[in-house]
Amino acid sequence: PEQVYLLRGNHESRAMTGKRYREGLNFQQEMTARFAAQSRAEAEDLLDLCFTWFDALPVAAIVETSKGDRYLCAHGGIPKHADTLADILDINRFMEPTMKGTLCDLLWADPVDDKFAATLSDADYEDYLDIDFLPNVSRGCSYYFGYRAMKQFLDDNCLKGLLRGHQVPPTGLRRHFGEIRGERDSAPLVYTVFSASNYCGTYGNIGAVAIVDACGIERCAFRDDPRESMEMPIEETIDEEQFNIALEDDSSNERHPGWNSIRRVVQTLGAFKQIPEESLTSKSLEAMRSTLKQHAQDT
Question: Which of the ends of the chain has fewer CB neighbours closer than 10 A, N or C?
Answer without folding.
Answer: N
